[in-house]
């Protein structure tokens, strides 16, 4: 089966009105194999102590050297996750959970900030990142909104055609996750969604935080270990117990056997060994790394890479027209039969202006950032 870049705001708008749209397709393995328990040579590192007490809502992620990228025993590993390489990341603080509706509400109230999904669409800017000659969609389509998963899918003819389970919803945004008439009332502890990259950066600036690099994110997901496949170890049979993912037949039937059919409140599942919640499943999380599908292949071999900041150039053969950023962690839509992105090494991408009802973020801060602020 294949897995599509369904996350692009521009792409879905075009898909609605342009029959000749080029789909952005990336490959995914057919099915997951049950993996064994942690390998005998798995290394547990001694936890480096935090220089001072973690800010409220954050967790200290100790500095360490670990294996980044696909592990040899990972049957679902993708080419863009290879080759694995040794990375050293200095210690930092990370949000224990994804940023919640309550936390983003405080930011929006204090700054009067409007997210990308709440703003008018600028066609003149949008067409600069589309194939030359792309016709302008109807004004009725070019309205503020975002991508929403279609919960009423009854059957799928072509798994390459993501429009069968995604739709552009005018009026959908973080305040109205499923469009007009929906609300986040009573859902303050749910992760905020429909967040574009610049929305996450704006929140970070206000909160004196940063988005994690991909290396920081993987270091945090590994917890006190260095080379496990999942945040809990290597046993894929624990996916439903440890994370909010799709259970049933994707995308037509989610049994909700893990307790949730769609987005779950933060802290609904056990944390990893450092006390970080939802590093697998629930909603995707932005990182600060520019996406390059060949990035790992360009890294020097046989040496430890210190605090990598990601690729300097963008590369995605399936979507060359607009730069995308790396996102990590998978979401409630991830399923072994389609795309097992709840693995630590899994890396996907989306354009900066794109949000959806399964994309959020969490933030990090270095000790120097916290000290300077205080």
Radius of gyration, whole Å: 20 Å
Topology order in helix (H) and strand (E) letters: EHEEEEEHHEEHHHEEEHEEEEEH
* Oligomeric state as shown: single chain
Strand content: 15-25%
Query: Ranges with pLDDT <50 over ≥5 residues?
Result: 1-7, 12-45
What's the pLDDT, averaged over the residues? 85
Molecular structure report:
The chain has 374 residues and is an alpha+beta fold. 16% of the residues lie in helices and 16% in strands. The protein is built from 8 helices and 16 strands. It has helices at residues 9-17, 101-111, 123-126, 197-207, 214-222, 239-242, 295-298, 367-373, and strands at 2-4, 25-27, 58-61, 64-68, 85-89, 92-95, 145-149, 166-170, 248-249, 253-254, 284-290, 305-306, 324-328, 348-351, 359-360, 364-365. The strands form 6 sheets. A 4-stranded mixed sheet has the order 14-13-11-15, with no helix packed on it. Strands 3-6-16 form a 3-stranded antiparallel sheet. The protein has a 3-stranded mixed sheet with strand order 4-5-12, with helices on one face. A hairpin with a 3-residue loop joins strand 9 and strand 10 (253-254). It starts with a strand and ends with a helix. The model is unreliable at 1-7 and 12-45 (pLDDT under 50).
